[in-house]
Amino acid sequence: MKRLLIASTSTVHGKAYLEYILPELELFFKGVNEIVFIPFARPGGMTYDEYTERASLGFKKLKIRVKGIHEYENQIEAVKNAKGIFTGGGNTFELVKQLYDQKLIEPIKTTVNKGIPYFGTSAGSNVTGLTMKTTNDMPIVYPPSFDTFGFINFNINPHYLDPIEGSTHMGETRETRIQEFHKFNAAPVLGLREGSWLEVVGAKIVLRGTLQARLFLKDKTPIELDTNTDLSDLK
Amino acid sequence: MKRLLIASTSTVHGKAYLEYILPELELFFKGVNEIVFIPFARPGGMTYDEYTERASLGFKKLKIRVKGIHEYENQIEAVKNAKGIFTGGGNTFELVKQLYDQKLIEPIKTTVNKGIPYFGTSAGSNVTGLTMKTTNDMPIVYPPSFDTFGFINFNINPHYLDPIEGSTHMGETRETRIQEFHKFNAAPVLGLREGSWLEVVGAKIVLRGTLQARLFLKDKTPIELDTNTDLSDLK
Questions:
Q1: A183/B45 Cβ within 8 A
Q2: Which of B92, B86, B107 is nearest to B156 (CA)?
Q3: Is the ipTM of this complex over 0.90?
Q4: What is the pLDDT of residue B172?
Q5: A13, B78, B91, B234: which is deepest, by most CB within 10 A?
Q6: Which chain B residues are closer than 8 Å to A181 by Cβ?
């Protein structure tokens, strides 16, 4: 039975890395003492080692050891033998490119579908959806495909941002961007605000955290969903 | 001798579509009474006809007729015979996908390099650079390549946005995104604020408008460039 925590962000304003979600992670990774960390998204361009160090510090309080997937001689074997997987945020294009280049898409799918817990933040959450076509990131590298894991039957827009009132900037709002997505694609898009996450247990998907999330369906007016909304049937 | 106007935006806050740049366009398109409009970027998902209508209204004061490229039976011939080209903003991924799908990349390169004036706004400016890897847009469709026209030897970031002071949002700032780009790419990136444009005449490239632009070079601290700065040697 697959189990995922799909978080909008690793960090909320004013708190340390992962701090806001630690109580949830403690339950989620109960009985797991080591996880494989996928640092490919390299936020700010940091190295795999630097990023793995950051993730390790985040998990220190839970006494969970974090090992970067780049530290393994055979990354596919590392995924197959993982007790838990954490994919960190950063640039979704580089993350997806590396997942394809290292041939990890299918191994991670298989591992997660057999019940190994998967935790994602930001870009690591984008890839749990059907495609990465609703990422906010800059296309700094060209991945071989925009298709992602599809652990859920819709797309995530992490760090969902409401229009800034009184803004004079003429760039598109997040809502406009997602509505443009729906001119070319049918998949629902869930705008997850920072501090929200999805809890996936088997076929059950529930919105968690204290905030509402914004759901975009093709050709419909967007709607606000309260926390604890059941999204199992969304597709 | 190639001639381009590469504008950050079509519209500045509080003014009508193209209004702020009309005096410049009048000089730029002097002697031209009809231009071919490329509406592929479809802002907000509007149709080609709707977008062409908008562009026509923008050029009405200059008595320049605007014809959408989709109205021609043979789009490649339309480019070859164009007296001027205007590529409008919207979604850069869809724009680039269509430019490749319709096999227009090489014809437009040839036409512009032989001296037909090219005006771009936003996404239409992104594509004048080496690649579209510094667009702000959402990857709603998968283009066959991120390579673009390369009329200038660097990349544009249109709608350049300074960090919002006091923001509690944890998503990356524009500057962070461009610095991530430089972890994987060497090309200079010019952050063009709304109301700025580049004037290209042959090998000469000059920053125009009233604002400064922000120049990002790999492994260097970003710098502010004053209007009228000569960028001809930037590469």
A1: yes
A2: B92
A3: yes
A4: 83
A5: B91
A6: 138, 140
